[in-house]
Amino acid sequence: MPHSSFSSSPALARIEQAYRRWGETLGGNLDEVLETFTEDVEIRTLLPDDGSTPVRGLYRGRDGARRYFADMFGAFDLLEHVADRLIVDADGTALVMVGRCRLRHRASGAEMGSPLIDVCELRDGGVSRLTEMFDTFAFHRATVGAPA
């Protein structure tokens, strides 16, 4: 990840470091990531909330965030996570991470790679809302198999 000028803000520097270490540890720094979230964080994916995938819908609070990652890592191994770019708006209330990831579905062994975009709202020195966007079709296909 290129060095960012917003690293002078302690909160943003912590978030940047957490993204970098997430890729280095393949998700092994969960507690560090959770510390970048506000107590009332909301995490949302674009996956259908119909029970067809292990990760879906809205997760609320730090306990919800922990459940989100437990759902993800219960079903998938993280093979690669790269945060190519972090973009922060002028007033420091929004951050976008542009990157990519690669996962392996534990049950089927199916692998998927995807561009990855996280859109974060920032408040009180942390991430208060995170919407994670990736190739939902590839994720769904790896989870439940190719469509008939």
Description:
This protein is of the alpha+beta class and 148 residues long. It has one domain: Nuclear Transport Factor 2, Chain: A (Roll), CATH 3.10.450.50. It is 30% helix and 40% strand. Strands 2-1-6-5-4-3 form a six-stranded mixed sheet. A hairpin with a 5-residue loop joins β3 and β4. The radius of gyration is 15 Å and the shape is globular. The chain starts with 9 loop residues before the first helix and ends with a helix. 22% of the residues are buried. The N terminus is likely disordered. InterPro entries: NTF2-like_dom_sf, SnoaL-like. This is SnoaL-like domain-containing protein.
**Low-confidence sequence ranges:** 1-6
> Biggest β-sheet, characterized?
6 strands, mixed
**In whole angstroms, how far apart are the ends?**
39 Å
Instruction: Tell me the CATH architecture.
Output: Roll
Number of individual domains: 1
Structural class: alpha+beta
Query: CATH class, anyone?
Result: Alpha Beta
Proportion of helical residues: 25-40%
Describe what is shown at a glance.
With 148 residues, the protein is an alpha+beta fold. It is 30% helix and 40% strand. The protein is built from four helices and six strands.
Features:
alpha+beta; 4 helices; SnoaL-like domain-containing protein; 40% strand; six-stranded mixed beta sheet; 148 residues; SnoaL-like; Nuclear Transport Factor 2, Chain: A; 6 strands
Secondary-structure map with pairings?
Elements: H1 10-25, H2 30-34, E1 37-45, E2 58-60, H3 61-75, E3 76-88, E4 94-105, E5 111-123, E6 126-134, H4 136-144
Parallel strand pairs: 1-6
Antiparallel strand pairs: 1-2, 3-4, 4-5, 5-6
